[in-house]
Amino acid sequence: MTDATTDTAGTVDTAGTVHVEGRILEPGRPGGTGEGPEAADILASTRKLVDPELRRAIETLPGSLRRVALYHFGWEYADGTPAAGSAGKAIRPALVLTAARALGGDPAGAVRAAAAVELVHNFTLLHDDVMDRDTTRRHRPTAWTVFGDADAILTGDALQALAQRMLAEDPHPGAPAAAARLAGCVMELCAGQHADCALERRGPDEVTLDECLATAEAKTGALLGCACALGAVYAGAELDEVDSLDGFGREAGLAFQLIDDVIGIWGDPHRTGKPAGADLAARKKSLPVVAALASGTPAAAELAELYDRPPGGTESAPEHAARAALAVERAGGRDWAQAHAADRMSRAIGQLAVAVPDPEAAGGLLALAEFVTRRTY
Amino acid sequence: MTDATTDTAGTVDTAGTVHVEGRILEPGRPGGTGEGPEAADILASTRKLVDPELRRAIETLPGSLRRVALYHFGWEYADGTPAAGSAGKAIRPALVLTAARALGGDPAGAVRAAAAVELVHNFTLLHDDVMDRDTTRRHRPTAWTVFGDADAILTGDALQALAQRMLAEDPHPGAPAAAARLAGCVMELCAGQHADCALERRGPDEVTLDECLATAEAKTGALLGCACALGAVYAGAELDEVDSLDGFGREAGLAFQLIDDVIGIWGDPHRTGKPAGADLAARKKSLPVVAALASGTPAAAELAELYDRPPGGTESAPEHAARAALAVERAGGRDWAQAHAADRMSRAIGQLAVAVPDPEAAGGLLALAEFVTRRTY
Predict the structure, then answer these.
(1) Would you call B175 and A177 a contact, using CB atoms and an 8 Å cutoff?
(2) Which pLDDT band, with edges at 50, 70 and 90, does B37 fall under?
(3) In this structure, are residues B78 and B224 in contact, taking their beta carbons and an 8 Å threshold?
(4) Which residues contact B206 (CB under 8 A, 6 or more apart)?
(5) Within 13 A of A58's CA, how many CA atoms are on the CB side?
(6) Interval A272-297: pLDDT, tens
(7) In the predicted model, what is the mean pLDDT of chain B?
């Protein structure tokens, strides 16, 4: 489980470069095919198409909630003055549009579906931050810390409704199926967040890696899968193609979560927007940590002891986090996470090949999947 | 404003019987037409049609959230054993089905819309109870007190999604318009709850009656209006008929809220399921209270002084509540609320007559509207 070199799907070298099935995915390089669209271009053109739709939708919210939403999206400061902040990387809407294109659809026709997915994503962020008491998101104080729990909950509720209204008002023939699929996904996201909260309440030795992977699939994989599926639905794809694209997004989503967890421990705070070692200081049972705890190594025992220690002892928080990070690494948690991310990417590519056999048509989705798993940190 | 005898639309006598435009609405008697369906029969047959659909839908929730939902609906105890509790009076689904029938539609064809409205209602109850820290609902501890804030929030989120999935999967030609209307209504409900929280944070002298009425319309009237509108949409009605029925439900909803507020002060705790005087003990700015405070009477000054007093003084809570209730009554708050409820009922009947000119066809909706405003207490 902690062997990073013999994974069936891929390996990760010491520089953090992911090797998948003989292809080398390096940071800053185009997707594995060596040609095709750059993920950065796809994301930029997605923002250009989807942002106006998103902003138009948010402008229709009642004033009190619109203010919270505009703050959360980074478009306004807390006092209501305009801000030029970033509302995230638009990976989910990019997956919708790119999946539509990959299956022969018109991406411009799927803009509302893309915006709806982004609204759902942000509704869950608003609510999760309340439940998890997370104080920082996208380098800024979370909405509940600024406006209070009630306004963050209500704005999340309204964003979910806005997403569904957008699809209900879309005359596209795929809209009802997309709305049903998105609603089903919300239920899975809620179950994932519930499982995550439950895992966090349990002791480090009472949590299995399988449980954590299932939770990550529901909490993160489900919406990336749904984004791809919605693109396929809007392209008029058959149900089995839609389901394969859902599988592609889910597997890529798990790879994304694994890398995100790695970044959560060893990432640069200036890039992550969170304090260094915040996940470890909060005793978060992220995937590398749980893999490390399950490794049966002496470092695992040290990590368990560090996690059992309540915060606020004689050791400073950064010292504690640094020791915990070293223990996770020595127990093989970092290597396992990177190898498992490569494994999931390999499975994702397999699902993609089923739905979109033509490598050229699949290039955009592949570039996006690789982008999220080769983020530099 | 506090004159209970000269209201343009109706009067309330000392026995609490509401007189609307010459017709007398007495507790326990059929609706004002003297014939037509009994509200109790409509509610019972609604439960029979809609409950199986609701339960089927809730069974599809992920296990962790299903348990919270089944508890909230009164169908299970907290430990998961079956309970025969009541999931409320089904007024909203009854309005959907009865509106569909009134406009010549088949009520059986609108069952999903009725269930969707009831799911949305319960989603907002789950979330509002968290925000308001309300501990009792339908004679039982609220879900958040049993399962925690996170599970109550997540179950509410999932119920909203379930409502939308139900409409998205409904092949009825009215389903997309109904879904859009229901989503828009959720946004209004959220704005109403936001306004309500904001009003509760302000001092008793900083709140106007108009603000409170607008808040009650958004928080309560909107969903009753939406229920009627969805029935009309499912009957294939024209937009102006749909809007008139929305107006009917809104006005009846405000009448309902006014009577509910009266019951919240003078109601029998065995019937309301809340401790006597709980609204007054919590210094709640309900409509009769705000009307009383605005009356300029000596009793208003006494009430303001009682509301300014922090809870937990030398006086017991029941003593304080009893004095406050008397002050509201002396300041005319009770009479005003009953007269204004009659006024709203009169406006509701006016809107109903526009959409459904045939009194026989309108009988069911009228009976339901009168039922909610002649609840005994």
Answers:
(1) no
(2) low
(3) no
(4) none
(5) 27
(6) 767 778 889 888 899 999 999 999 99
(7) 88
CA dist., res. A243 & res. A232, Å (int):
9
Per residue, the 3-state secondary structure of B204-260, as one string, reads HHHCCHHHHHHHHHHHHHHHHHHHHHHHHHHCCCCHHHHHHHHHHHHHHHHHHHHHH
Nearest CB neighbour to B165, from listed A131, A158, A183: A183
Run of H or E including A18: strand A18-20
Q: What is the pLDDT of residue B200?
A: 87
Are A123 and A163 within 8 A, CB to CB?
yes
Radius of gyration of chain B (CA): 20
Question: B76 forms bridges with which residues in the sheet?
Answer: B82
| pLDDT on residue B325 | 95
Q: In whole angstroms, what separates CA B208 from the centre of its chain?
A: 21
| Interface mutation vs chain A, best among B120, B122, B128, B164, most A CBs within 10 Å | B164
- Output the pLDDT for position A21: 36
pLDDT at A310: 81
- Residues in B whose CB is inside 8 Å of some CB of A read 60-65, 123, 127, 130-131, 149-151, 153-158, 160-162, 164-165, 167-169, 175-177, 179-180, 183-184, 186-188, 190-191, 193-195, 197-198
Per-residue confidence (pLDDT) for residue A1, from 0 to 100: 31
**Å from B132 to nearest chain A CA?**
9
pLDDT tens per residue across span A6-47:
222 333 343 344 333 333 333 333 334 444 468 999 999 999
CB contact under 8 A, B127 and A180: no
Asked if A265 contacts A375 with a C-beta cutoff of 8 angstroms, the reply is no
Q: Per CB distance under 8 Å, which residues of A are interface residues toward B?
A: 60-65, 123, 127, 130-131, 149-151, 153-158, 160-162, 164-165, 167-169, 175-177, 179-180, 183-184, 186-188, 190-191, 193-195, 197-198
Produce one character per residue of A58-79: b if its CB has 16 or more CB atoms within 10 Å, e if not.
beebbebbbbbbbbbbbbbeee
Task: List Cα–Cα distances, A113 to A49, A206, B53, B253, in angstroms.
Answer: 12, 40, 28, 34
Query: Three-class SS of residue B72?
Result: helix
Pair of tokens at residue B211: 């603000």
**pLDDT 10s digits, B323-358:** 999 999 999 999 999 999 999 999 999 999 999 999
B150, B160, B179 ranked by CB distance to A157: nearest: B160
What average pLDDT does this structure show over B201-230? 94
Q: Do B149 and A164 touch (CB under 8 A)?
A: no
Q: ipTM of this predicted complex?
A: 0.89
pLDDT tens digits, residue range A178-230? 999 999 999 999 999 999 999 988 888 889 999 999 999 999 999 999 999 99
In whole numbers, what is the pLDDT of chain A averaged over residues? 88
- Identify the structural domains of chain A with CATH numbers, from first to last: 10-373 (1.10.600.10)
Cβ contact (<8 Å) for B154 and A190? yes
- Residue found under tokens 């065995």: B270
